[in-house]
Design a protein that fits this description.
Four copies of one chain form a homotetramer.
Chain A: E1 9-11, E2 47-55, E3 65-73, H1 77-82, E4 85-94, H2 101-107, E5 109-110, E6 114-118, H3 122-135, E7 145-149, H4 164-173, E8 191-192, E9 195-196, E10 199-206, E11 210-220, E12 227-228, E13 231-232, H5 234-237, H6 245-248, E14 251-259, H7 265-281, E15 291-302, E16 310-316, H8 322-342, E17 346-347, E18 353-354, H9 359-365
Parallel strand pairs in A: 1-2, 6-7, 14-15
Antiparallel strand pairs in A: 2-3, 3-6, 4-5, 4-15, 8-9, 10-11, 11-14, 12-13, 17-18
Helix pairs in contact in A: 3-4, 7-8
Chain lengths: 368, 368, 368, 368
């Protein structure tokens, strides 16, 4: 399993098997090389933890769970709070939630790990992050950063399976190295352009500058709009796609960009804004109901939370941001494609099915 | 007690006694008349519920609680979700949180009641609102609107006294009529410009146009900056004020404006932006650590959540907004003054005291 | 010539000849049908006027001019001022200018025609719009809406060829019907992804809803990023592209969306935001120096400038915006492609050349 | 005359005589000391130039001019373009114009001097700044920063008296030292809360940190709302105020903050946002028609326009911004008061009068 040591994947029944990522099938995206794992964890210090919550009716328990938690942890909880990282937020379409965004915009910093869950569990995830921060020895007020997508096509969202323990566990087990994609963690119940998707990640290395990592929770778009490497393949794949009305025009994409390039908050916000351009390459038109919300942070531009007086900063000049922007757009496009390629069919609540993308057919359509 | 029937005020020991509001002492603010209760509940249909959480060490239980929940409920939970109200958000200084703000900005609507709590309880309050919405028969994803201030000077925030039950109760007991101010609900542990404050409210009636109601959670500013009716009285009152460094430059003000004037989201956002001008009259300079975040909603501009096709709207023209802006600024100034006038001294965690404002001295300074 | 009666195209020497639009060559973009002219003028009442300023050294006059003015006129100057249209602005990357944007954001209306020029002529274009408004009998203060791109690769921008007369003429000659694209008006000196471009337009008709028209001033992107119908063709065309360092990472795209669908300012802003997604499909990553700035207005949601009291509005519900968003993204993609397809090679100041796109090669690469 | 050497004040007839500033009459605002001149020019390197355009009908020429230009020049035109300063913009109410604001928000820098004029002359002022920049040897595209207020109560705005020469002259004659206030430069025809106003300035010195200077073009508010030192004096002065309907609810305030404290763009934007709080202290509710638009820049945080690679920055930590915010609010309040105190009665177009504030009566009302 590609999920890496330490990532608990709780699948009680019917869990899908891993499949190949886009690049393993020969697809490339843009001119810049990937990092070692082609994942957000290529940015030094960044760890990811998934807890998948997968429930089927068993004797004495009904209800179907296809949900979970994904935690992106750029540093220890206490360390991050005491030395926040420069960060920015961008909203392409705001039909969703990223808690903490108001503070990020004002102070320009990320103070807590980023937790991704399904919509109805945002509050309890935020609550769990407060717990974790207090436990880490921070006796202060905490404004957690929690993003969401809506997995109600596959998950019985009225059951709210995710608990504080799941969130704490996702934080605790977060590790570096390869990152599980597709049907895992917060991505367990997510669907993109009619096909099963969920978590996707990719990275780019800019020589002499640094590494850019992107992780997405993919749950957006309409089947007929799917594009792979820019090619409109959706119409040829509609027959195998879910076309539930609630999915067609809804969904969301929550995107996280981390980089060890020293950038300030304004620059991070500029990076975050580019995630939407990567989504557009894959077919997104940011539908009315889509929460397309993006956060970017710089792991190397940090200052003590209580700093006063004058501080020194080292930053990349704006004039050198061009390749960084390209890296964000390319990695975003690849991360969406990975989420779609890796995710296998999932059947969920009410018998709803979300078929895995017919990757062979895609490759054929691409003429490879 | 001025708090009205149905508002549970849980004070186990040492609760302060009510005092007079600014207007009862002869102070007026601006040219427009107030509503019947001079409260946000003057807007038809609007209800407010406070749950005060007040804990002192007793046999077998340690810890000091000076916190609570205030719920502003413009309509039933299910009714509001199914027929959201036009709404807008403005941020004067974003060192705080108002969950749901991203969606309000995109869709321009308020879908849930507004809950105010202390910072570390935002997540669980949001979680409780999801519960309440599911219980109300809405089987959909919900993005609650929860605002906060930091009451850590008086409350042992590491204990996180507020529970889901408190939030649910605040929603359930919300009623119209007079609104308790000062040391009540979410305002229990809040401090403003060195004096005990908390909840404040006021309203204005614009003949032939409608009613504007403001409710604030006041927890901002430095003692020497306090202004009453614009008069700088802070320096004369510093001796009786709390001058804890953590309070001096921090704090926040979460402001809610409701009106039955038919306004769209853009117009609501313009109203929300005026709350900051009312705070400025009372001495706010929106310090670095202050979460000065404001929401405005129009209770009469509503549409079915799932509306499609063409809809008709009746709106107040922008050219008639002048008096509405004045009403927001005046009511905000009065609400802050009320919060300060009504709140009596509270002693809290670590023996910290927050003295009630010496209102007699203020009146004397005003030369009345 | 496709430019239509009444559009003065001043080309003194060496003007390129018209070429075919993308759709004439069999390319389609999205599922929705185009309007009659596949142009922004398909929106009833909308007129476009181009004045091309083309100068070559002749006896007694030196200097090379490759610039001009494009005016988009949704109604008569006086009529528009007296009954503004609902409008919104979105900025993908703000390294550019759209005057009037602050007012559009506050009041949510468009009061003047939209004029596009080269960067150094924005001020005089705005000045000319004030003139035109005063001449039209409006004795009030006017805040014009002027957008720009930088044509300094081909035009001697220090000469500032555009005069007030050119702007007034563009307003005066604006007509409906087919719209000249490519090397015309403000597009005369513009370059996109290494190839000559300039003005591009397209439209979509949504049955029972209305028409969406897009007009772009295209001057953005790097050669190796060019995508046609999503296909990355840039690398195969780099040999024939201009690769000047100043062009590679700079440029801009000013985009205008007009529609007769009744939308309010918030909704118009949502439309404007989608233009960036169309640019992304063609290869934009919104480089650091790119002014990617978009305006959308609804020609049917108008109110008297001095309206007071209550007004009635008819609007499309947000829930029906999905196809409108698709129309904006598809029409934007097509408009960029048109600008590239129609524009022929131009040689300009300092002997700089901007080659027309090798459309035959593109068609070949697309496998048609 | 207090206007200083080098500031041409063209008053052909009826020019008012200088009066005392607020502080000269014993009024103080806030705890921080002023700079030497209590003016924006206390920030090292900052110069101000006024050109007053004052026209009365004479033989052969009709028309009444009460307008002008004020230029705020933080460094030489070429030097500023080549080494822009960190800058931010904030909009309290956007019924106005500040050209260049989109670029300032994206790049976070100020590249040109700031020019203030009356609304209908913004375009030609911008055009003149382009001229000045080209003349200074910059052969590039320039996006000028021009702000405005509407002086149509006193000036015949249809005549558009301001010429390119006036703007160039204001730039050329800008000097440091004392700054003329009231009826001068762009302030010549401006009115505030029913009384003649115009230019106001003030500064604060924060020991060991730096100097904060504010310059305002004051043209806002309704007579009955005037507050001096927070005291509501408007109702007592209404008899002597202009109560033209067009003035009552309109007007604007364009505010400029400059500081030599090293701040980045995000921090400058935070400063700019505080200007509105100072206006509120003087009675502003940011009426519907008011363009309350503010810019802040840091003269010491500069980088080469074409910088690439890594750069080092020295910044004040956010935790030390508290006194800086206070300085902005206090200096703004004082600058408004200065504009009102210094400006004497002006009669203008159509015989409209704008009476100077009855300062003696104000002092009496303040109980001094």
């Amino acid at each position: 399993v590609r999920t890496g040591v330490g990532r608990t994947i709780r699948r009680m029944t019917g869990a899908p098997v891993p499949r190949l990522r886009a690049r393993e099938l020969g697809l490339a995206f843009g001119a810049h090389p990937t990092g070692r794992f082609n994942a957000i964890t290529d940015v030094p210090g960044v760890r990811v933890g998934h807890v998948t919550v997968w429930r089927d009716p068993v004797l004495g328990h009904d209800g179907v769970g296809r949900t979970g938690v994904t935690a992106i942890v750029p540093d220890g909880v206490a360390e991050l709070f005491r030395r926040p990282m420069a960060a920015g937020v961008a909203v392409l379409n705001g039909a969703g939630e990223l808690t903490g965004s108001i503070e990020i915009r004002e102070w320009g910093v990320l103070e807590t790990p980023i937790v991704l869950v399904s919509t109805n569990n945002v509050g309890r995830a935020a609550d769990a992050v407060v717990d974790a921060t207090l436990v880490a020895g921070i006796d202060e007020v905490v404004i957690p950063v929690v993003g969401e997508c809506d997995d109600s096509w596959l998950d019985d969202i009225t059951r709210r399976w995710v608990t504080s323990d799941h969130v704490r566990e996702a934080l605790d087990i977060a590790i570096d190295g390869p990152v599980a994609e597709g049907v895992v963690g917060a991505g367990t119940g997510m669907v993109t352009m009619g096909h099963k998707a969920g978590i996707g990640t990719a990275s780019r290395v800019l020589d002499g500058v640094g590494t850019v990592g992107v992780l997405l929770l993919c749950n957006f778009g309409a089947p007929e709009q799917l594009r792979v490497q820019g090619r409109l393949v959706g119409p040829d794949l509609v027959a195998g796609a879910t076309t539930a009305p609630t999915l067609d025009r809804g969904g969301s994409c929550l995107g996280v960009v981390l980089t060890d390039i020293p950038l300030d908050a304004r620059q991070c916000e500029r990076l975050a804004r580019r995630v939407g351009l990567g989504l557009a390459r894959t077919g997104s038109v940011a539908h009315h109901g889509s929460g397309d919300i993006f956060l970017a942070a710089s792991t190397t531009n940090r200052a003590d939370r209580d700093a006063e007086g004058f501080v020194e900063r080292r930053l990349l000049a704006d004039g050198s941001l061009g390749p960084v922007f390209e890296a964000v757009v390319d990695a975003t496009e690849e991360a969406v494609t990975n989420a779609l390629f890796v995710a296998d069919t999932v059947t969920g609540v009410g018998g709803h099915a979300s078929p895995g993308l017919d990757v062979d057919r895609v490759i054929e359509l691409l003429g490879r």
